[in-house]
């Protein structure tokens, strides 16, 4: 066929092939100026920030979680899976070679197609050889598949960082809850001792004729309630221990090993006063969501490239013969090679459906990113507000606790001296117990809020290395990481 004939044939084939649909407008990631991030940039917290609480048991539990947590093991397995998929996608860019050999026992028809002496007889047909094929990837479909797999692997790596961050935070927060339970148990025990003391005073007053059985029974009725509160606090401590063991990847055998915390809840944590301008770049979950956008866009480009012709080179060489004895004789050798072009002509809309699906997946990835970003901003803003409010409440509550304890002391002294009724003691005790519980709750809630804010800011995660590794200058994606970076 002449060159003009080849050109006409290719033109007709291209005109008849399936064309990609018109590209639709896509959702866009939220930008910094849409989020109100204008505070001073923050740096990563110190590695092992939880050691600032000065509790060796807390340090041990977090180290144990990093070593044994099933959640972290699952994240690591997902990373290995993503890396293997990246390697498999990259292999598609390289030539592929294989060796093959086989033999078939057959009876040839007795006619002119098979030469004598094999016509009409039973014999072996054997072949052995090597083949080489190479997809030239003119339209970048395989390169986009590699870019997608690489972005997913980088996202999986960031998920490990995020899992470690969440594990450390969850253990620190559960540890604070264990501290709270023990502190409330102390308050209940103290209340139990106080109520027993009041019972003793009431019995003395009853013997002196200053009180009646009514005051005594009322005082005795308050004692079991203190025991109930102490038992409830102990149950809460047990539940916190169970949670800590589960997070660290341990079972019931470790419950007895977790002792009362000796944590310094006022440990210094470097925290901002406003929403930092680099909030989004500090969080591994946000960076992972951004890479999900890059992966989805690479998938969309690969789906678009599937509409165009595939061009590949093939070559083969080997031996083929009737019978096994002469398979490797010189006359049995053969070879060949050349280019091959294939393109879709009719596929019942499959390629168009896959392309529309990839566009929808890209929009979904952008939506997930935006949702992650908005939640990150809300979580940080919530904790800033909470810390500010709790800090003021703590000052006021300290004054309230001091005043209520003074009032209880005065009421007890007046009751002992016969200058006040038991009702005044009971009211004062109710106020002081409530103040003590509130003080413990505020201290614990403030510690939890500070840890939560540290997590919201990315903890000790350093985004610099992650951003460098996530940037892929060889990617054919037209929605590069830098275009969606905050």
General description of the model:
With 486 residues, this protein is an alpha+beta fold. The protein has two domains: 22-93 and 140-308 and 350-484, Up-down Bundle (Outer membrane efflux proteins (OEP)); 95-136 and 310-342, Outer membrane efflux proteins (OEP) (Single Sheet). 59% of the residues lie in helices and 10% in strands. It has helices at residues 3-16, 56-68, 70-91, 141-207, 213-247, 284-305, 350-416, 422-456, 463-470, 481-484, and strands spanning 96-107, 122-135, 310-322, 333-342. A four-stranded antiparallel beta sheet has the order 1-2-3-4, with no helix packed on it. α2 packs antiparallel against α4, α4 runs antiparallel to α5 and α7 (350-416) runs antiparallel to α8. The longest helix is centred in the middle third of the chain and has 67 residues, at 141-207. The radius of gyration is 38 Å and the shape is elongated.
């Amino acid at each position: 066929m002449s060159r003009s004939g080849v050109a006409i044939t290719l033109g007709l084939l291209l005109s008849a092939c399936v064309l990609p649909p018109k590209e639709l407008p896509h959702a866009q990631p939220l930008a910094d100026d849409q989020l109100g991030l204008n505070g001073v940039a923050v740096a990563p917290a110190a590695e092992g920030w939880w050691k600032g609480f000065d509790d060796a048991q807390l340090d041990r539990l977090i180290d144990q979680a990093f070593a044994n947590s099933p959640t972290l093991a699952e994240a690591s397995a997902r990373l290995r899976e993503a890396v293997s998929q990246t390697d498999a996608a990259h292999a598609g860019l390289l030539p592929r070679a294989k060796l093959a050999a086989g033999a078939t026992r057959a009876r040839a028809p007795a006619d002119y197609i098979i030469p004598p002496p094999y016509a009409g007889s039973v014999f072996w047909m054997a072949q052995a050889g090597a083949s080489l094929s190479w997809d030239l990837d003119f339209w970048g479909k395989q390169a986009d598949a590699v870019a997608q797999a690489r972005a997913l692997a980088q996202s999986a790596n960031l998920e490990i960082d995020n899992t470690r961050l969440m594990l450390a935070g969850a253990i620190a927060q559960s540890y604070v809850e264990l501290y709270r339970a023990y502190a409330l148990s102390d308050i209940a025990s103290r209340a139990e001792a106080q109520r027993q003391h009041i019972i003793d005073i009431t019995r003395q007053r009853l013997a002196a004729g200053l009180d009646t059985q009514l005051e005594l029974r009322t005082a005795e009725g308050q004692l079991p309630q203190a025991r109930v509160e102490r038992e409830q606090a102990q149950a809460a401590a047990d539940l916190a221990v169970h949670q800590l063991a589960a997070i660290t990847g341990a079972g019931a055998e470790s419950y007895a090993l977790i002792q009362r915390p000796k944590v310094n809840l006022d440990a210094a944590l470097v925290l901002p006063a406003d929403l930092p301008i680099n909030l989004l770049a500090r969080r591994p979950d946000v960076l992972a969501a951004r890479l999900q956008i890059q992966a989805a866009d690479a998938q969309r480009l690969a789906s678009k490239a599937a509409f165009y012709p595939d061009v590949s080179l093939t070559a083969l060489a080997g031996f083929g013969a009737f019978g096994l004895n002469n398979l490797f004789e010189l006359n049995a050798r053969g070879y060949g090679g050349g280019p091959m072009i294939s393109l879709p002509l009719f596929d019942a809309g499959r390629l168009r459906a896959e392309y529309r699906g990839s566009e929808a997946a890209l929009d979904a990835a952008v939506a997930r990113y935006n949702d992650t970003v908005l939640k990150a901003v809300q979580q940080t803003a919530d904790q800033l507000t909470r810390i500010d409010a709790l800090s003021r409440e703590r000052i006021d509550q300290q004054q309230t606790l001091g005043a209520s304890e003074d009032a209880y002391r005065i009421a007890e002294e007046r009751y002992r001296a016969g200058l006040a009724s038991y009702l005044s003691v009971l009211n004062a005790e109710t106020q002081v117990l409530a103040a003590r519980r509130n003080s413990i709750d505020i201290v614990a809630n403030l510690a939890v809020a500070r840890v939560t804010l540290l997590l919201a800011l990315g903890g000790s995660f350093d985004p610099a290395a992650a951003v460098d590794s996530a940037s892929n200058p060889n990617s054919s994606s037209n929605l590069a990481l830098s275009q969606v970076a905050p």
